[in-house]
Amino acid sequence: MKRLRRLRVNETMRSLVRETKIQVSELVYPIFVMDGENIKNLIPSMPGIHQFSIDRLNEELERIVQSGISGILIFGIPQHKDEEGSGAYDDNGITQRAIRYIKEKYPKLLIIADVCLCEYTSHGHCGIIKNGRVLNDETLPLLAKAAVSLAKAGADIIAPSDMMDGRVKAIREELDGNGFFEIAIMAYSAKYSSGYYAPFREAAHSAPGFGDRKTYQMDYANGREAILEVEADLEEGADIVMVKPALAYLDVIKGVADSFDCPVAAYNVSGEYSMVKAAAANGWVDEKKIVMENITAIKRAGARIIITYHALDIAGWLKEA
């Protein structure tokens, strides 16, 4: 008889032979920064997550640094929006000012700057609009301009999330042309058109004003297409590739990790977070057990970087262990 239970007799034994272990250094915590003063707005659909003005951002930054989390993913919410999303590449924009503040206060904290136009456009789409269509090539120079502006502010990693074709190449060339050779690109390479983003759109004020994003974000029925997207981004100069969302796309994460020798990130998105929080609040699940099982599944699938709103909770649980 093969007695596999010998390796499960107690927690010490189980820990010794555990194949997949979560480390706080692998976690990235998303934050939302908005124009204004004395703002700390709870996001109703995302319990525990807030929008902060820069003057109150230190409250969250201190928690992040004390937790041991090494990186944040920053999203800016501007007061002014226009057709071309000019706030995205304004050197004095909300995200740029927030990055400068963070780097001054916490220079060792790794800052990943999301690059997209949706939070800054009056129509809520990720690119330039003409006759109701999102224009690909006309959007690329603006994304590249935003990347350089964020790099100047002090971002360590540029993360284009727009899903325009060719944007990694455009950004890499513009960064290099401005002397930012050492700034890495984390491409949202396999970003699906997903129902799991709804709470985020409330948090970032980024819902599209008309239509949807299916002409540029991926069809959730497609798995092999993700390999083509990742391959293209790596050829154009991406250093890290991302799959988003995570839990409904574990097969995609595994496929990407098995196919490419590069760091793979996975974004455990707002809807995935909110569903766990809602179920836990109703007493239907044990939050810690569910979160750790989910995050372990994401890592087991092949992700080496996990972006999650649970990061602060996970860091605390790991310290308790």
TrEMBL record:
<keyword id="KW-0456">Lyase</keyword>
<comment type="pathway">
    <text>Porphyrin-containing compound metabolism; protoporphyrin-IX biosynthesis; coproporphyrinogen-III from 5-aminolevulinate: step 1/4.</text>
</comment>
<feature type="binding site">
    <location>
        <position position="213"/>
    </location>
    <ligand>
        <name>5-aminolevulinate 1</name>
    </ligand>
</feature>
<feature type="binding site">
    <location>
        <position position="229"/>
    </location>
    <ligand>
        <name>Mg(2+)</name>
    </ligand>
</feature>
<dbReference type="GO" id="GO:0005829">
    <property type="term" value="C:cytosol"/>
</dbReference>
<feature type="binding site">
    <location>
        <position position="118"/>
    </location>
    <ligand>
        <name>Zn(2+)</name>
    </ligand>
</feature>
<dbReference type="GO" id="GO:0006782">
    <property type="term" value="P:protoporphyrinogen IX biosynthetic process"/>
</dbReference>
<keyword id="KW-0862">Zinc</keyword>
<dbReference type="InterPro" id="IPR030656">
    <property type="entry name" value="ALAD_AS"/>
</dbReference>
<keyword id="KW-0479">Metal-binding</keyword>
<feature type="binding site">
    <location>
        <position position="309"/>
    </location>
    <ligand>
        <name>5-aminolevulinate 2</name>
    </ligand>
</feature>
<comment type="subunit">
    <text>Homooctamer.</text>
</comment>
<feature type="active site" description="Schiff-base intermediate with substrate">
    <location>
        <position position="191"/>
    </location>
</feature>
<feature type="binding site">
    <location>
        <position position="126"/>
    </location>
    <ligand>
        <name>Zn(2+)</name>
    </ligand>
</feature>
<feature type="binding site">
    <location>
        <position position="201"/>
    </location>
    <ligand>
        <name>5-aminolevulinate 1</name>
    </ligand>
</feature>
<feature type="binding site">
    <location>
        <position position="116"/>
    </location>
    <ligand>
        <name>Zn(2+)</name>
    </ligand>
</feature>
<dbReference type="GO" id="GO:0004655">
    <property type="term" value="F:porphobilinogen synthase activity"/>
</dbReference>
<keyword id="KW-0460">Magnesium</keyword>
<dbReference type="Pfam" id="PF00490">
    <property type="entry name" value="ALAD"/>
</dbReference>
<comment type="function">
    <text>Catalyzes an early step in the biosynthesis of tetrapyrroles. Binds two molecules of 5-aminolevulinate per subunit, each at a distinct site, and catalyzes their condensation to form porphobilinogen.</text>
</comment>
<dbReference type="GO" id="GO:0008270">
    <property type="term" value="F:zinc ion binding"/>
</dbReference>
<protein>
    <recommendedName>
        <fullName>Delta-aminolevulinic acid dehydratase</fullName>
        <ecNumber>4.2.1.24</ecNumber>
    </recommendedName>
</protein>
<dbReference type="InterPro" id="IPR001731">
    <property type="entry name" value="ALAD"/>
</dbReference>
<dbReference type="InterPro" id="IPR013785">
    <property type="entry name" value="Aldolase_TIM"/>
</dbReference>
<comment type="similarity">
    <text>Belongs to the ALAD family.</text>
</comment>
<feature type="binding site">
    <location>
        <position position="270"/>
    </location>
    <ligand>
        <name>5-aminolevulinate 2</name>
    </ligand>
</feature>
<keyword id="KW-0627">Porphyrin biosynthesis</keyword>
<keyword id="KW-0350">Heme biosynthesis</keyword>
<feature type="active site" description="Schiff-base intermediate with substrate">
    <location>
        <position position="244"/>
    </location>
</feature>
